[in-house]
Structures are given as structure tokens and as C-alpha cells.
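Q: Hi! First time asking for a complex rather than a single chain. Here are the components, and I think there are three in total. Is that enough to go on?
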Amino acid sequence: MGITQILFWILAITAIFSALMVVISKNPVYSVLWLIVTFFTISGHYILLNAQFLAVVNIIVYAGAIMVLFLFVIMLMNLNKETEPQKSKWLKLAGAVAGGCLLLVLVAGLRHTEKQMTEMVTGDIGLIQNLGKVLFKDYVVPFEISSILFLSAMVGAVVLGKKEPRIPVETEMRKVEETQQAINI
Amino acid sequence: MNALIFSAVSGVIMMFSSFLLNNKNSVRVLAHVLLLATIIANIFELRGISFFHIDTRGMLEFDRFALLFTLVANVCTFAFFLLSSRDLEKIGNHYSDYFSLLFFILAGIVVSSSFKSLLMLFLGIEILSIPLYILTGSDKRNLKSNEASLKYFLMGSFSTGLMLMGIALIYGATGTFQTGITVAEKVPVLLITGMMLLLFSMSFKVSAAPFHFWTPDVYDGAPTVVTSFMATVVKAAGFIAFMRLFAEEFGSIRPEWKLLVGIVAAVTLFIGNITAVFQQSVKRMLAYSSISQAGFMMLAIYSLSNDAKEGLILYAAAYSLATIGIFAVLVRMKDYTFEGFNGFAKQQPFLAGILVVFLLSLAGIPLTAGFLSKFYMLKATIDGGSLALAIFAVLMAAVSVYYYFRLIQSMYFKTGNATISGTTTGFKYTLAALAGITILLGIFPNLLTNWLYF
Amino acid sequence: MGPISLIALTLAALLFSAGGILVGKLFNKGSKNLQKGEAYECGIPTKTSPWHQFNVGYYLFALLFLIFDVELVFLYPWAVVVKKVGVTALVEIMVFIFILFMGFLYAHKKGALKWM
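A: Yes, that's all I need. Here is the structure of the assembled complex.
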């Protein structure tokens, strides 16, 4: 077993363990911290794949920015142990069975898969020069179109997140009543 | 390419329209004009005149099928604008932004209906869904809208995750994102697994059973205007992407998935129709009816013939126009239950007559576009070798007649005081025009399908 | 400098941090009182639980930041290859930045960048 393989196994086991801890942890903040560990292990995998740029980006964007967003959401909803809804045992069991079935089917299906997957020509596609060349020569159209995606996400953030000017109490009360009625129906 | 660039630019213009125009009416007029420009640009491209020459490296292909569907989607959206754009105003304070989100959805529709690369499929579906999550939750002070938005977002991102996983597996098996793969005799297991994951996630996006559980809640909770758009144009776009994916990418491994798609179609037809029978609210009934119509559209993917292609386009047009029309009336009603429509025909004989046309079209009664599109689907299914599935579909269509006629019954044969507000003359004429198109397409479907060839 | 040195460094870092905790435990006199559990042992006593609801405004800022963060990530590979690819790359990135600049302008005009 070479050094790369040892590293791979360590990283893989840590990744699976921390990903499981994300789900198992009772405290949502712990879940987020475990998620950060998961991201770091995945960055490690990127380095093993000779994609240093992606590894760094993964840490900057995911472990940095997106984690902050996750924490904000948790703080926004004010989740803590007391408010965590108690799910019934049966629901948990059903979830475990369903997830287990998916895992079983995938493992059973992929067990007989071809040993060698399609190999790309060289192993240095993840280097920043090659990435840049591919991105700005072959994948220009998706690159530009993704900016529309960003734009719509931005509009959405403003539409949903911006504080509204106060509306008169009466209108508000009427809306609440309408909602109540709608729920009763 | 015309429609893509026009709708994206229109979206950007609409973003800024609220700063430049301080009048809601002019914002609305601007949106109509921009959409009309998009439609005209699209017709130009359909006639072979493209304004932009951009090398997409084979990632997008604007063939006639894609262009014609884009045209149908744009025209249906235009009808939606004409009928319901005033109701968008009532959702919240960001009137112009809703329009810009709708334009971004249209851009997403163009991408997802003309993709040639799985990467573009993913991008298109995302551009289509993210504005929808936002529009679903745009009624910020309504708890049901919030719930619907969150539910839609969580389920939607989960299914997008499945889709990405599927694309990754297919890339692992074939080494390319480009569609149109050729496989050797033995189909790689990785490819089949990826195909299954894509099948699941696309079924989710078009709300085919058993991946439909989000649909009634989301359609019910979203503001009614938004439901009208997402149950029609967006769902049809999902089917076009579905069809394109399975015809081009997985066409060569058809025996692997044919049975599965047939089962999904049958289950969707069954669940959608049977549950729709028990609904008390018209809005919820329409949500289930959209599931059952999805079952019919699944038949096109099952058979994948030329008939199926024509039929799907016709189906998209017929279903979208009729549903948009019904929703446009429903938004203005005070009470969304069936009882709320009691005595509607006495008060508004004209509108009631038009609603009947739409309902007949949805139920698939002859002389309407809905009948012919169902007919095309059944013909394609029988040619595809499954008589049993076709018979089952006919049986289920018969069930659907029950709940569509229930609405007609409460409009005409029950007394009550249905209340509707805000019906202008222009609104009535637009509805009448839609009904006219529905009947016209029911008699001369070639008016639409000929565009595929000439 | 092979991967061995990297692993050695990692192990050394782990040992050092674990060692610190271990030494602390060994020489700990074991004085236990309530103040030990406080977040700031020698500061002002905390009044309420640190768990409280954040304003949605933070979220809006974070989301806008994230979008521009992702935009920035695209600039690194561009900067590396811009000489090789030439003018087309310049045009491509200009279009991209322009579209996102529109988004920035929009957010600014909407007042989303104002605090509250």
C-alpha cells in the first residue's frame, strides 16, 4: 500500500464518519462543525486527485462562506435542543429502512461494475491552468449562463430577505385570519 | 439562441424597471412588450434567422422541436401575463421583480429544452427551479406560502442532488457530458445506475408518481397566480427536458428503462385521478389534475415516436392554455371550494361558458385540443406496443371526467352566490381568445404541429 | 520533500495539540466551581442564553457575499490563462462581470446593502 492509498483510506474513513456525525448530532451547531470537517476531508481528496485549486476553493467557498450561511440559518430559526421537534420512532425507522434500501440497491448494482472506469488522458486536469483553459475555451456558454443563475438567486435573496415596510395592523390581521381559514379548509 | 438572450436581457431590464418607472402600469406594459419581442425573435429563429452567432461547442442545439416548444412556452406565458399580471401585484411589494424572475424562468426553459450536454440540462433545470422556489414563497406574510416554499426548496434540492449524482455516474461510465452516447452490447452498470437516478429526479421535477408528494402542498400553498404558471409552463418544460434526455441520451438503451417508465406513467395516472376525485377545493383539485395530466405526458416518454413528439407539443399547449384560463378565473373567486362556484353560470354566463370549454379540453372531450393531444399520446402508446397501458389511460381519463364535470355541475345546476371580482372586458376577451385557440387546435392541430417540419 | 514530510508534519501538529491538553490535565489541581463553565471566566456574568434569534438581515448580507465570492473564484483561473487564451477570455470575463455588476447595482438600488 503506497502513501497515497494510506492517505486515501484515512481521508475516506474520516469523511464518512464526520458525515454520519452531521446527521446523528443532536445539536445543530455540532452538525455544522462536523460538516466543516467533512469539507476538509473532501478537500483532501481533491488534493489527492491533483486538483489543488479545487481544494482551496472548496475550503474558501464551502467551509468559509456557505458554513456561515448555515450558521445564520440555525441562528435565524433559533434552533436549540428545546425546540427540536420530537420525531416519532416509527418515522426514524422508516427513514432508516428507506435509506438503507437505497444504499443496498446502489451497492448491489455497482458491485459488478466494470473495474476500470473511463480514464481521462492525464491526471493534471485539476490544475488551475488546465481548468482555466477548459473553462474559457470549451465551457464558455455554461459559464456565462451560470451568471444568470447567480442573478436570479440575487433577486430572490433581495425579494425574500429584505425588510418590508410596515403594513397597517388591520391588513395584517386580515391576512392572518385568511390563513387560518385556509388552514381550516 | 434568440429567445435565450432576449429573455435573459428582459429579466435584467425588469430588475431595474422599478427604479426607472414609478408606475405599476408602465412596469406591466414593459413586461408585455419585452415578452412580445422575445416571441417575435423566437419566431424569426424558427424561420431560420438567428440574430446571434455564438459557438456553443455543441452544448445547445436549437432544433425545431426545442424552438417550437420555446414558442409555445412563450405564448402561454404571454397569455398568462395578459390574464394574471394584475394579480401578481397583490402578492407583495416587489412587483417588477416577480416579472424578472418569470423572465429568468423562461431563459431556463430555453436552456433545458435545447440542451445537448448534461451540464446544460443541470444548469437549465436549476435556472428554472430557483426562481420558482422564490416565487412560491413570495407571499411572505402567509404561513402556507412560507411552508410551501421551504418544502419545495428542500425536496427540490434533494432531487437536484440525485440528478447531479446521476450525471456524475454517467460521466464516469462514458467520459463525456455530451448526449447521444453509443453503447456496446453490454450496457455498463454505472450508466444504468446514473440513468435511474436521472429518471427519479426528472420524475420529481415533473411530479410523476411516486415522486409527487410535494405537488399538492406546494401548489396549494403558493400564491394562486404562481401556481398557475408553475403547474403549466414550467411543468411542460420539465417534460420537454425529460423527453429530450431520454430520447437522445438513453435512446440506445431503451429496453432497460421502458418498463419502468410505463409503470411510472400508470401509477401517476392512477394516483392523480383517484385522489383528485376526493378534493373539496378547486385549487387542490387542479393540483391533482396536473399530476394526472403528467401521467398522460409520461406516455410520450414511454413511446418516443414522432407522434409522441408532436403530441407532447400539442399537449403542452392545450394543457397550459386551459389550466392558465381556469386559474385566471379562480384567482378572482372569493371562495376556492367547489361550493364557491355554485350558481356561477347565472351571474357570469359568458365566463362560465368559457370555463366549460377549458374543462372539456382538460377532460379530453372531442373538438377540443385536449382530446387530440390525448389521442396522439394513445396512438403513440399503441404503436409503441402497449395496448394495455393505453386502455388503462383511457379508463383513467374517464375517471377524470368526473371531477371536471363536478365543477361544471356546481356552476350550472346548483344555486348559490358565487362571487368574482375584477373582471374587465379585456380579461373576458382574452379568455375568449384562449378558448378559441383551444377549439381551433382541437380541429386543426396541424396549425401547430406543422411548425415542426416546415 | 516528499509526502512523508507532510505526514510527519501533520502527526507532529496532532501530537503537539493533544500533548498540550494532556499536560494541562496532568497538572490540573482540580478546582471546580460554577465560574469555570462560563464562556468568559473573568468577564461580566452572562445575562441570557447565548442562543437567541438573529436578524434575517445578516442572512441577506451573507447570501450576497456568497454570490460575489463565487464570482471571485472564477477570476483565479481566468487570471492564470488570460495571456494564453487572449482577447476572447477578456471579453468573456467582461460579460460575466458586467452581468453580476448589474446584480450588484440592483441590490444597491434596492437598498439591500443598507443596514436595516
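A: The mean pLDDT of chain A is 82. Let me know if you'd like any chain examined more closely.
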